[in-house]
Amino acid sequence: MKESTENIFRSIFYKYYPGLLFYATRLLGEEDAEDVVRDVLVELWCRKDLLEAGNSLQAYLYRMVYNKSVNILKHRDVQEKYCIAQEEINRKRTAFYQPDKTDIISLLENADLRKELYLSINDLPDQCRKIFKLSYIHNMKNKAIAELLDISVRTVEAHMYKALKFYVKSFTTSSQSY
């Protein structure tokens, strides 16, 4: 029976792998396509009971490749938005700390500005505030934060994006009042 299952799986692999790879490549590009198809086939192997699914097997495999690909594309979007927000923060930070602007230096020394910045941080939702402080005040990496809080790195990234977006909005509003 074991040899029969392996032979069936081998024939499924040779029959569907090229098409699945082509499909995944069209969705994701070459970079992640092979990994997605391999993951799908490994998952299929782990669920050997589906090997007898017949005609619906092809649709099932393509749906699995599609779902995994969509998840990767969504993750890419989150990363891209995070990077854009980070670039905006860095641009504003470098403009703000420009030493040639003497009024900026006096604002840096202003206790009221520091107070507003801390109030803005404290206005964040609890999890965002905790993650933001761990990252920016304690200089922790996203992976270390995720391990410390027992959450995924993607969740940390999402909270950081939310916090940075809130921070930029809050900072822009408060700096315009000066």
Question: What would the keywords be for this entry?
Answer:
single chain, 178 residues, mainly alpha, 83% helix, 0% strand
Furnish the topology, listing elements before pairings.
Layout: H1 2-28, H2 30-46, H3 56-96, H4 102-108, H5 111-122, H6 126-137, H7 142-149, H8 153-176
Explain what the structure shows.
The chain has 178 residues and is mainly alpha-helical. Helix content is 83%, strand content 0%. It contains eight helices and no strands. It is elongated and about 75 Å long.
Summary, kept brief:
With 178 residues, the chain is mostly helical.
Q: What characterizes the major β-sheet?
A: none
Report mean pLDDT, rounded to a whole number.
Answer: 82
| Strand percent estimate | under 5%
In the predicted model, the low-confidence regions spanning at least 5 consecutive residues are none
Number of helices: 8
> Which class of secondary structure composition applies to the elements?
mainly alpha
Helix content bin: over 70%
Number of strands: 0
Radius of gyration, in Å, reads 25 Å
Q: Tell me the distance between the termini.
A: 78 Å
Secondary-structure element pattern, one letter each:
HHHHHHHH
Instruction: Indicate the overall shape.
Output: elongated
